[in-house]
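Support request, please re-run this one:
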Amino acid sequence: MAKIDRIVALDIGASKLVVAEFIVGQGGVMELVNYGIGRLGVETESQIDMSAYIVSTLRDVMREHGIRMAPLYMTVSGQAVFPRYVKLPPVSRDKILQIIQYEAEQNVPFPIDEVVWDYQLMEGDEESGLSVMLAAVKIENVKSLTDCVLAAGMEPEIVDVAPMALYNIVRFNYPNIDGCIMVLDIGARSSNLIFIEENRIFSRSIPVAGNAITQDIIKEFDISFAEAEKIKLSHAFVAFGGVYAGPDSEAADKISRIVRNVITRLHAEVNRSINFYRSQQGGAAPSLVLLTGGSSSMSHMDTFFREKLRVQVEYLNPFVNVAVSPSIDNDRIESDLHLLGEVAGLALRRGLACPVEMNLMPPDLVAKKLFRKRQPFFALAAVGLAITLLCWFVYSWRMRVSTDKQFAGVESRAGELDSVSRRLTSQIEAKNTAQAKVNCLVNAIEYRSKWIQLLASIHSCLLDGMWLTSLRAEGTEENPECVKYIFIDGVGFEDELRKVDRAEATAIEVFVERLKEEDLFSDETKIERQPPRKLHTREFTIRIALQDVLNGN
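Re-run finished. Output below.
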């Protein structure tokens, strides 16, 4: 009889969690046999500790749906993870890990000892250079989730990244689609974009999602978070351009306008991400968009993005090639398909070799698992130690006799080796001199690449009809040799910038806000000079403050 393996997959989101039970048969054949979805019942923007809500909801869902304990695979939200995509120089295989370690220290925006990180080699080869995807999460963030799972009576075996789980399930279910696929995962607190093209992957988190609609409903109707959520779930839909709910329902008309405004903002961010992927990552425009996530189920969401992006838009079906038990009601699972992508992607990790396999397990949990695996060997090690001590005593007694005879020969040999030591010392000094030169070259390369990143970030934030006329760098009063500020002078066509002007912010201010959103620039970035507008153009000078001081020495 074929062996059947059973696992539990857990996806913890900002407003809900999904628990699914899978069986994995011979050859990695998977089947969903049970699942449950539970709402955490707390405002996503609140600063309270979510641990108690996660533990109680997880226990309630498993008890209500009869999900049994099994090896647990879980995800970390894409919003909590810092993805970075790095192109490695051509190196031999034995040097790859060393270079990846260096790149992780340079690219992760936190001290490396404060994060859990993992990597995945993507496309390329040793001669042309490999592409590497890095993913890092702060230890405290992932530990807070694993502690909740432990408190609920389970222990995770893998802590995956939610966008990577979606990537794996798309590659498994849609293997024959050519071109670029874009997965749009619209959650409660954030939306994740995953670009899938051949062996390439690029993901980005956008801070516009379903909770923005809830917050706008709260402001519009002056009601509680729970009431606003209820209204959103029962009445919200994406209205078609200019046409809303109709004159018979003023409340529905307001809600439809709120939804339309938020989704329009989301569309603008999606467009920016597509342009960034094409210009900075060398990717193609998406030929297919797959919608998923809790907030993607609003009526007409697919129609909206189909009209705006002018590409084919479908809802992600994670069960094209993954079986579903006949005991699960078809209507129920069809209504929940948009919530089950991550758990289906997690299940693939149990029985198959997936394109992206990462594990962001906290260090203390890794150490605990390693200690448990070694426990059966400790008793044997103690017996072995006793035998070793006895053998060592006998050996030491016999060696003392022979040592005295060898000592005289060692003294003569030591004189010969002394001259060798002097030659080695001179070689070490030469090596240190060469290493100092190498360090200078490495610093120069890093300084050059940092400027390329700065210029690329500034260029990506430019508005249509806007260009730069000059750029200069300045240091601080304490250290003028180090670059702290970049002053840019620019000009924009008045008719193009007027399209961007809003009541609350001019086009130049919008440009400054975009610069502040970039990882390389700080909130000290501001408009330095803005002369009176001319008939056809608008001039400006902006002081960009860098997050990190550049040392060009």
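The longest strand covers residues 537-551. The radius of gyration is 29 Å.
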